[in-house]
Design brief:
By secondary structure, the protein is α+β, with helices and mostly antiparallel strands. It folds into 3 domains: 127 residues, no CATH class; 74 residues; 119 residues, Histidine kinase-like ATPase, C-terminal domain (Heat Shock Protein 90). Helix content is 63%, strand content 10%. The protein has a 5-stranded mixed β-sheet. Helix 3 packs parallel to helix 5. The chain starts with a helix and ends with a strand.
């Protein structure tokens, strides 16, 4: 707008009202150049013809070339601009050089019109190229994602085969041997121990089969982890833990399934660690609710005999802490003064 105003002020030498109106029209039309480039171009042609004001027309021509893909329209507009700029208006003189001067002016005017047209088309091509590059990047990202999913599916299938062929087979043998020992044993304690081993082996085998099914599904919608344990299964978990454990306390009436699952897995992990690392220890599972939060505390006494060197991944507590963080809760774990261990999960109650 500033450059257009300077162009008008320099070229409007006539103080007549008509001339000033034509100059003001050419200057004011630039405001609407972005929305109506063709109309603005046509409105600025009288100023180009009568007053040699070319900047508003060049701006409109550039915006039109940047927006339009109609090459024929752009060529017509450029030629029209060149003819209007080179036309001897008003008709002055009749010398011999008038036609030559007009031809030279026409050539220069065509070059002047070509500049904004080419620049506008260049910017349009640049925008098209940028969009095309973006589409290619999106396609490549989608292809990489599909490749990663295919690799993951193959790995999950291989893992499922290994679990089914090796781990499930061995756990099944443990269950069979424990069942045979339960039938043949005469000692009541030995018979009870064999029964516990068989029961835990059967549950482990069922969970392994469920995990194999999930792995083979490769992450589809059918991989819902259902059915999942709830608080109603805590009594069975404690009773079949294979150790002397006691369940006490109560929890709020309405707890969402995610919190129930976290509580169950905490008790399961604690009792499993007692069996592995504290043979002969007694455990206490206490559910509690103080109005602002609820949770579970599992405490065990010191081991009465040496534990066997069993393999472990050391990821159990890490997974429990992640569950607690998802529920904005806290997980505390540590040794007690009597040589035992204490594991506590605290989950804040959400406002109604």
């Amino acid at each position: 707008m500033a450059v257009a105003a300077m162009d008008v002020l320099v070229n409007v030498w006539d103080r007549s009202v008509a001339v000033q109106l034509i100059g003001a029209l050419a200057w004011g039309a630039v405001v609407f150049c972005r929305r109506f480039p063709l109309s603005v171009f046509l409105l600025t042609l009288p100023a180009d013809l009568l007053l040699d004001i070319v900047f508003p027309s060049c701006v409109a021509l550039f915006v039109l070339a940047e927006r339009s893909r109609n090459r024929r329209l752009l060529a017509v507009c450029a030629v029209t601009f060149a003819v209007v700029s080179a036309a001897p208006w008003p008709l002055y003189g009749s010398g011999e050089n008038i036609h030559a001067l007009t031809l030279v002016d026409l050539i220069y005017s065509l070059a002047t019109a070509a500049a904004p047209v080419f620049l506008g088309q260049l910017l349009m091509a640049q925008g098209d190229l940028a969009r095309r590059v973006e589409e290619i990047e999106e396609a490549r990202e989608h292809e990489r994602m599909l490749h990663a999913q295919a690799v993951l599916a193959r790995e999950r299938a291989q893992l499922a085969r290994e679990m089914h062929d090796v781990v499930s087979h061995q756990v099944g043998l443990i269950a069979i041997q424990a069942g045979a020992l339960q039938v043949s044993a005469a000692d009541p304690e030995l018979k009870e121990g064999a029964r516990t081993i068989r029961s835990l082996s059967v549950e482990t085998l069922n969970e392994l089969r469920h995990m194999v099914t999930l792995l083979r599904a490769s992450g589809g919608r059918s991989t819902e982890l259902t059915p999942q344990p709830t608080l109603a299964d805590l009594h069975k978990l404690v009773a079949t833990s294979g150790i002397e454990a006691e369940l006490t306390g109560e929890l709020p009436a309405a707890i969402d399934t995610t919190a129930q699952r976290a509580l169950y897995r905490t008790v399961q992990e604690a009792l499993t660690n007692v069996r592995k690392h504290a043979p002969g220890a007694k455990a206490s599972v206490r559910l509690w609710n103080d109005g602002t939060a609820f949770g579970v505390t599992v405490t065990n006494t010191a081991a009465t005999r040496a534990s066997l060197p069993l393999p472990g991944s050391h990821h159990g507590l890490v997974g429990l802490r992640e569950r607690a963080e998802l529920l904005h809760g806290e997980l505390e774990a540590g040794s007690t003064s009597g040589g035992g261990y204490r594991l506590a999960l605290r989950i804040p109650r959400l406002p109604d």
